[in-house]
Amino acid sequence: MSPPSDTREQFRPPEHPTEHFLMTTVVGSYPKPTWLNRAKDLAEDDDHDFDDGDLGEALDDAARTITDEHVRAGLDVVVDGEMRRNEMVEYFAHRIDGYEFNGPVKVWGHNYFDKPSVVEAVGYDEPWLVDEFAFTTGVATGPVKVPITGPYTLASWSFNEHYDSEAEVAYELADLVNEEVRRLVEAGARYIQIDEPALATTPGDHAIVGECLEHIADGVPEDVRLGLHVCYGDYSRIYPEILDMPVDEYDLELANGEYDQLEVFTEPEFTKDLALGVVDVHTGEVETVEEIKDNITRGFEVVPPERLTVSPDCGMKLLPREIAARKMENMVQAAREVEAELDAGEIDVGFAGE
Amino acid sequence: MTEVLATTPGLFPLPDRAKSALADLKGHQKDDLIDGEETGELLEVYDRARRDVIEIQTDAGLDRIVDGQLRWDDMLAHPLCVHDRVETRGIVRYYDNNNFYREPVVRGELTYDGDIAAELDGAAGVDQAVLPGPYSLCDLATDEHYGDDGEDRRASDAIDAVAGAVPVDTDVVVHTYWGAIPEKPYAHLMDAAVDAIGFDLIADHEQTIYNIQEYGTKPSVALGVVDGKNTLGESPEEIAERIEWVLDNLPAESFETVYATANTELFYLPVNKFEAKLEALAAAPAEVEL
Fold this sequence. Notes:
The complex is a heterodimer.
Chain A: E1 23-24, H1 34-44, H2 52-72, H3 90-93, E2 96-101, E3 105-108, E4 111-113, E5 116-124, H4 130-139, E6 146-149, H5 151-156, E7 159-160, H6 166-186, E8 191-195, H7 206-217, E9 225-230, E10 249-252, E11 273-277, H8 289-299, E12 308-311, H9 321-343
Parallel strand pairs in A: 1-12, 5-7, 6-8, 8-9, 9-10, 10-11, 11-12
Antiparallel strand pairs in A: 2-5, 3-4
Chain B: E1 3-6, H1 16-26, H2 40-60, H3 78-81, E2 86-93, E3 100-106, H4 115-121, H5 134-140, E4 142-143, H6 152-163, E5 173-175, H7 183-189, E6 196-200, H8 206-215, E7 220-226, H9 236-248, E8 257-262, H10 271-283
Parallel strand pairs in B: 1-8, 3-4, 5-6, 6-7, 7-8
Antiparallel strand pairs in B: 2-3
Helix pairs in contact in B: 1-2, 2-10, 6-7
């Protein structure tokens, strides 16, 4: 059995009551308070004197409130719910040189996004997330994770007018993500998650994602925990190849499919940390603590407790806010109960046979 | 004498003002999508949007005008999704795109329901209808009634059935996309009694040229030489060059009509780029030197 990742222990709360530590965190996005959306509408409306300064204040307030909601849920590692990010591609494309916006395109039904075009060489202009990280850290009581949309997804979900191939766009963007990660590390970030949902659409491109991660991890100190989040795909198409990627943790959506793909990760041995999705973000039903405990123990079929992170399937932004909060609370309680039962030797860890 | 005509494979992006108006009227969830029963204000928004896209095509000078299939929330699966004997379930991925449609599950016999005919009836100035082919419909749907999978060979028969239903003076083009047609289905498709086959030359021109050289093609041809999935614009001269390149590589073929068109539907594009592509397409035939 490979040793647990040595980037993990730094996130154990000082007063953690049990010997076992199942780190609890979330993927990133969270429902925005209704008043924040109203404030954005006001700021866009020229007939109102609600200006950018007022909107900035509203964004700070929202980030403070939602960070606190994560803290109150008892999570070991929190985020600000991505309150300042309008959308996971647009937010970054607005901050990267070489991008242009032409208007909304359809995703499904009457849901659209401003799919940007890469019209010239991409370049690093201003920091993307350093201010967000500093603010969240200032209002949180514990460690903060920074989710970043990965270069492969940024490339796949953009029009490419400039480069010869999508892979080339992805590699160029990976260098910019590396620049941002270095700045975040300099600002004190120790837990960074690269989100690559586009890999689910085109699992054959896992080698491109792997190459991108080599660029991203370049020069990043060993004590910085790097994670990769992938969701809603056929994992057998990317496993075990993803194990070679230079990350400490894979954050995977598995509750939505009732763990029908869990077995994929049992052979060959899962040699990295697993952040297991234990609540479904596509149902408004709040899973009970008992249900979530059962889900957590499914994770022990793949990794031992010291390499299991407990997390929702994916970003929670599409849920009603109250449901999202209750899912987080139940998730944390379930993790704490499983830890106590592990300490007491009451849980049979399937993996522990070795 | 070969005639070059500018057209499109339809499925246009909604005009931006219709995007927001319809989102407000209908909502954002899967239960809010089109059911074929729209009335009142909704109908008016669609009518106005349709007039807008017809005007854009007329102003650009396209040789064939489509209605844009603006009601087709589920893209090519639309005729199934609004049918009484089809149940729509979860949201599923539309081919390899980051686009989704409601999974249509066929629960009873599929009969004529007149949805598309009514749509075209209300569209003055339209002279090209766009329909999903039986093979694609079969591929996009889940069957819980017929218990019989689609086959390449039957696709050809099915297309014949469609082609046989139109008057003889109506040209029928089978436009294909997402790369070259694999060899076997292409050979079967050549048995169908259609006037032209359309090719996606953006995604794969080499295999397409090979198919035509090996198996021939119909008396007319549709060439998808404008990229429906990229905002990068083509000039009329570039479009003309691509058409000339294809014809130069097929010295044995002489065509009645060459349709200059996009390789895929155009709803992937933001409206400004979509309009620029229509204008370039419309101006391209005049630049083609045969």
